[in-house]
Design a protein that fits this description.
single chain; 507 residues; alpha+beta; Collagenase (Catalytic Domain); Echistatin; three-stranded mixed beta sheet; 10 helices; 25 strands; transmembrane; membrane; transmembrane helix; disulfide bond
Amino acid sequence: MLLIKKEICLSSSRGRTFHSARSGTAYIEGICSLTRGGGVNEYGNVGPMAITLCQSLGQNLGMMWNKERATAGDCRCPDPWLGCIMEDTGYYLPRKFSRCSVEEYVRFLQEGGGSCLFNKPTKLLDPPECGNGFVEQGEECDCGSQVDCSRAGGACCKKCTLTHDAMCSNGLCCNRCRYEQRGIMCRDAVNDCDVPEMCTGDSSQCPPNVHKLDGYTCDAGQVFSRTFIQYTSISYSLSLSLYSLIHLSPSLISHSFPHLFSYSFSHSFSPFSHLLSLHCASYSQGRCYGGRCKTRDAQCQALWGHNAADRMCYEKLNTEGTEKGNCGRDPSGQGWVQCNKQDVLCGFLLCTNMTIKPRYGDLQGDVTSLTIYHQNKYLDCCGGHAVLEDGSDLGYVEDGTPCGPNMMCLDHRCLPVVTFNLSSCPGSSPPLICSDHGTCSNEVKCICDADYTGKDCSVYDPIPDPMLLDGPEKYKGPSGTNIIIGSLAGAILLAAIVLGGTGWGFK
């Protein structure tokens, strides 16, 4: 994240120029992207700058702008006087997220968009220091501050040295100073495109959070049914704990922004009824792409509230090359590209019974609305350009979406799944992947099934049936979002405060 003192106009490495009426802008859902995980903020007074930085981080975490301050319904802001964070602000500075912002954040995690947030950094920019919670050079362990150690790990670690016979002090794979046995689950899968992580038996840390390589088939409805079961009610708290994120002087922060330093709130809300109605009814098979299960139905439901249109709609409109049906803009920016017949399902997104206004983004141009008669029935063909603040147009079929048998979309083209290198893991040759005893991950490494090991999962090495970890600190990665919401959302505000006068960026 870059901080500048004048009107925002940043040219990114990808050639896009940011122009924003606000004092900050960022990519939507870009927190874990190597190319879209940043933003730009105008530096000014600490208070307003902290809020705009918080808003930019919120966009990176999947939160959309609240276009209007609702007076009723699920999106009602809990603070009608100060307003909510993902809104345009005035003289008074907001302190809370609306219910819709929190639900968008939860959905973002449940869809796998925040997978990198669960990978603990291995190296800090600050000099090594005993008590910072990171095992660094010259240390055997580090359970954190005295308060942290009293909660967990203190019996195994004294002054960053392991106690007698202790193997570890902290970590999802450390239990009573000993490594958990191989095969114990330390992080559950968040959706059908994710893979559960298991303890290795020789480390206290849960392996990095990875997901399936692009191209795997998936159940588009599975994650949402799990979401409804686990999150029928969520309580969250934003509690700003300075030492949980960065070691700076508390007096500096409290002096600069006293009304936010000790700020916290809690809020409970009812089941995600709209999430259930949007997604749980759709169990069409999709394809994994970037850790998410992609289908046209899911896209239409999320953006417009209804299912995807019939293929005939795509063949009729997307081959015309107009604003109402195309495969993207002409390189000159003056017209539209006609879809080849084999690519029609990768162009303009066409749905049925669309609402006039998209649920995300701003409608640009008119809504496409056409009814055609085909095989003794009428077909609704509807679409629209829903443009986000970062310039992304949600009105197109997403990359990775199935477009035919063993075919997926990429850059508005329908390509064979083999193009995505699904068979590049060790021990893989069609139709077997990882010797047929594992899953190929996005790191192009085999994640072996229970009882198998080796780089290609070809070695049979039986282990006891894995069991779930117990204990309050053993939350299962993204499926423990009810625990993480407070810490990460609190970290958003805290980062905005402590980084008020500094630069910040994502790799």
